[in-house]
Specification:
Keywords: RNA-binding. Helix 4 packs across helix 5. The protein starts with 9 loop residues before the first helix and ends with a helix. The protein has 3 domains: 203 residues, Rossmann fold (3-Layer(aba) Sandwich); 33 residues, no CATH class; 71 residues, RRM (RNA recognition motif) domain (Alpha-Beta Plaits, 2-Layer Sandwich). It has 383 residues and is an alpha/beta fold.
């Protein structure tokens, strides 16, 4: 794929990259690569460029993401007798695992340590008080430009991990960031798509090239709390600890949509009407039927502010297929109402912000060859 502008949104660019890698058989297991950091043919060869970087040679502690295409990068860190840090899956049990191979480990053992199973078997957790200093960061990407602009798979974990390292004092503005991708993933990315929380990269390693981007765009200066939802706070304990620290330090730690829940003294708070939410006294017939479908009598639990609609389910799809996809994307609902014969399902989330976040995350989701239709439940009813 020649470097060029490939879309008008980040999701457009992701979809084109994923589609191209699948259609050209450039992808390796696991497949399909959609909604993943793609594992590509030649990933091991691309990673062989890493030890040749001066930034690698001088680094003592290196953080590498846990995705499949960076497996060889993790091996090279261990083989070079450097400290390897790998983020915990979805940050649910902490921030980092430090990989500790057994004494006298052979290359074969080190290669096992570099796998996802090895990370589980040969690691110890690193807490917020560890005072770790990271000298080099290796991240995965779906797309990256020669200017250093980066697009991930859309969940924001790499950006969040970097922001958390900034808050911990683990990285500085001088810490280099490397990504390892297939040549087809190097494309033009419009700068206007970048947001303040997006990390950029200094080096791009492909099977055929080493690209020094010379990127001068500042990296995120820490966690943008206004981008963090309450649902994310509940899922990531280390995020709650960091927020408490920054609140103590006098920083603004207002969460996404949090200001909507702060009533003025002496005034009754108005309930904001958002997509998927009805006034309590006008639930409508659809709300009653959905309440019944979700196991609640009509009129109870209103307003239904947190339901997402999933349509165009394959005729042979099972509820387990959808549940597995939701787990992989980190969008597990409180309740799933399956209506297989009607090729649809409804997902209930804690609040409207969580439902909207899930809808955004699930855009473009496929089961088999079918792309699902995802929307807030009320938006779907309005259609």
């Amino acid at each position: 794929m020649e470097p060029r502008a490939v879309g008008v949104s980040k999701q457009d660019i992701r979809e084109q990259i994923w589609d191209h890698m699948e259609s050209q058989n450039l992808a390796d297991f696991p497949r399909p690569v959609h909604h993943r950091i793609p594992n590509f043919k030649g990933a091991s060869h691309a990673a062989e460029q890493l030890p040749r970087l001066q930034a690698f040679k001088t680094a003592r502690t290196i953080k590498v993401n846990p995705d499949a295409p960076q497996k060889n990068a993790r091996f090279f860190v261990l083989e070079s007798n450097k400290t390897l840090l790998v983020p915990t899956p979805r940050l649910r049990t902490g921030l980092f695992n430090k990989i500790t191979p057994p004494p006298g480990a052979t290359k074969d053992i080190l290669r096992k340590c570099a796998t996802s199973q090895g990370v589980r078997n040969y690691s110890v957790p690193i807490g917020l008080d560890s005072r770790v200093l990271v000298d080099l960061v290796v991240v995965g990407s779906v797309a990256v430009s020669e200017k250093g602009w980066r697009i991930g798979k859309g969940e924001g974990y790499a950006d969040l991990e970097y922001a958390m390292m900034v808050s911990m004092g683990a990285v500085s503005t001088e810490t280099p960031v490397v990504t390892i991708v297939h040549d087809c993933q190097v494309v033009d990315i419009p700068e206007e798509l970048l947001e303040e929380h997006d990390i950029t990269v200094d080096y791009i390693l492909t099977p055929t090239r080493v690209i020094a981007t010379g990127c001068e765009r500042p990296q995120p200066m820490g966690i943008t709390w206004s981008k963090i939802s309450r649902e994310m706070m509940e899922k990531i304990p280390v995020l709650r600890s960091l927020r408490a620290r920054e609140q103590q330090a006098g920083k603004d730690v207002t969460l996404q949509g949090e200001h909507q829940h702060l009533p003025e003294p002496g005034r009754q708070q108005a309930v904001p009407l958002s997509a998927g939410r009805r006034p309590p006294d006008t639930p409508g017939p659809e709300a009653s039927s959905m309440a019944a479908a979700c196991g609640s009598p009509p009129g109870e639990g209103a307003p239904l502010a947190a339901d997402a609609y999933v349509g165009n389910l394959p005729r042979d799809a099972r509820v387990s297929d959808l549940k597995r996809a939701l787990r992989e994307l980190g969008s597990v609902p409180l309740r799933l109402t399956w209506q297989g014969p009607r090729r649809r399902a409804f997902l209930r989330y804690p609040d409207s912000a969580a439902a909207q976040q899930a809808v955004s995350c699930l855009q473009g989701l496929r089961l088999g060859t079918d792309t699902l239709r995802v929307a807030l439940a009320r938006q779907q009813r309005d259609k």
